[in-house]
Write a structure and sequence with these properties.
The structure is a single chain. This protein is α/β, with parallel strands linked by helices. It is built from 13 helices and twelve strands. The chain is about 35% helix and about 15% strand. The strands form two sheets. The chain has a seven-stranded parallel sheet. Strands 2-1-3-4-5 form a five-stranded parallel sheet. The structure holds NADP nicotinamide-adenine-dinucleotide phosphate and 2-keto-D-gluconic acid. The site of 2-keto-D-gluconic acid has 10 residues, from loops.
Length: about 325
């Protein structure tokens, strides 16, 4: 018989908790006095897990639930879920694509402007009273004018960023594993070659083994002393100690980061870099967009309970039937 219990292992936004509680099937693990004992007692009742980015839902975790059929991930990136293992074991993984694309692209452009024109630094100058005591903030050495941008991972968000960059008059190139025939931007089959040719490297790449630390010391050296790195994808894509060294030693000009390898912890040597703009993973973080993401999590779980097609299964777990 189909298991209808829904497990929320970690705290989720009220919209998700309320939406799932309305099914009468929700098990909130954080409300249990002894979570481990609760899991052991209820494991066979769990058919769906609703999860966020802060829990590793790997094979070992999923195998604790013998009747598990769905892992509904809050976020388009699902690098914390072992989707390959899920696919091999008849479990569907869903994520939250599209509804956040434009918000994240807006944040990426904001971060780029902040970084290249030193906007946070100039605001700190004003607040410290330096405008009065020392005069205007120094002219910025860098500018968006006449620049080339290389987008690492031209997917949904990468394309929305590219559209905005066109409006800013930037020349656009991209790197990914495959050339895309429906775009006119220049394609590089090598990340380091693209880094060498562009002024701005914009990473929107997903996390996971295939992208871990692909932005390394060599890529940063290729980007060069006028180069700017923006990372809006996943922190694990960048070798953070190589980046801190590159920022310190002016191997690159500046970096703007929304994501980090070990969130919420940001390495002290990155914090110490005045030429880094650091945001606390706010790419999609408006009430409007987070509500749309949350509703998609609820809708995917409700589709499972109703025996319907999930709305947004990931590529590794194509839906056939429950
Ligand atoms: P998407 O449409 O699936 O695009 C992902 C792109 O990554 C694809 O174009 C793919 O192209 C490329 N890619 C995958 N593996 C690669 C590799 N090993 N090397 C180079 N390129 C690779 O996903 P999306 O909706 O644009 O989201 C992208 C990522 O943004 C998410 O996975 C998430 O990590 C991040 N994100 C961050 C925030 C934030 O708040 N900062 C918010 C949302 C999403 P190929 O297959 O051709 O390589
Ligand atoms: C979320 C994200 O902030 O969708 C993603 O992949 O990184 C962000 O939109 C995150 O997943 C929620 O914790």
């Amino acid at each position: 018989m189909k298991a209808t219990g829904i497990l929320a292992p970690t705290r989720m936004m009220p919209l998700i908790v309320d939406g799932l509680r309305a099914t009468g099937k929700l098990h909130c693990l954080w409300e249990q006095a002894d979570p481990e004992a609760y899991l052991s007692a209820h494991a066979d009742q769990i058919g769906a897990i609703a999860t966020g980015a802060h829990l590793a839902v790997d094979g070992a975790y999923m195998s604790r639930f013998p009747n598990l059929k769905l892992v509904a991930n809050f976020g388009v990136g699902y690098d914390t879920v072992d989707a390959k293992w899920a696919g091999q074991h008849g479990i569907i993984v869903t994520n939250t694509p599209d509804v956040l694309t434009e918000e994240v692209a807006d944040t990426a452009l904001g971060l780029l402007l902040m970084t290249i024109r030193e906007l946070p630094q100039s605001e700190r100058w004003l607040r410290a009273g330096h405008w009065v005591s020392k005069g205007p903030y120094p002219l910025t050495a860098n500018t968006m004018r006449g620049k080339k941008i290389g987008i690492l991972a031209l997917g949904r968000i990468g394309k929305a960023i590219a559209t905005r960059c066109e409006a800013f008059g930037l020349t656009i190139a991209y790197h990914g594993r495959t050339k895309q025939d429906d775009v006119s931007y220049h394609y590089y089959d090598s990340l380091i070659d693209m880094a060498r040719d562009v002024d701005i490297l914009m990473s929107v790449a997903p996390g996971g083994a295939s992208t871990k630390h692909i932005i390394n010391a060599d890529v940063l050296k290729a980007l060069g002393p006028q180069g700017v790195l923006i990372n809006i994808g996943r922190g694990s894509v960048v070798d953070e100690s190589a980046l801190a060294k590159a920022l310190r030693e002016k191997i690159i000009f500046a970096a703007g980061l929304d994501v980090f390898e070990n969130e919420p912890h940001v390495p002290a040597d990155l914090m110490a870099c005045e030429n880094a703009v650091l945001l606390p993973h706010v790419g999609s973080a408006s009430i409007h967009t987070r509500n749309l993401m949350g509703q998609l999590v609820v809708d995917n779980v409700v589709a499972y309970l109703a025996g319907k097609h999930p709305l947004t299964p990931v590529a590794e777990t194509p839906f056939k039937s429950w």
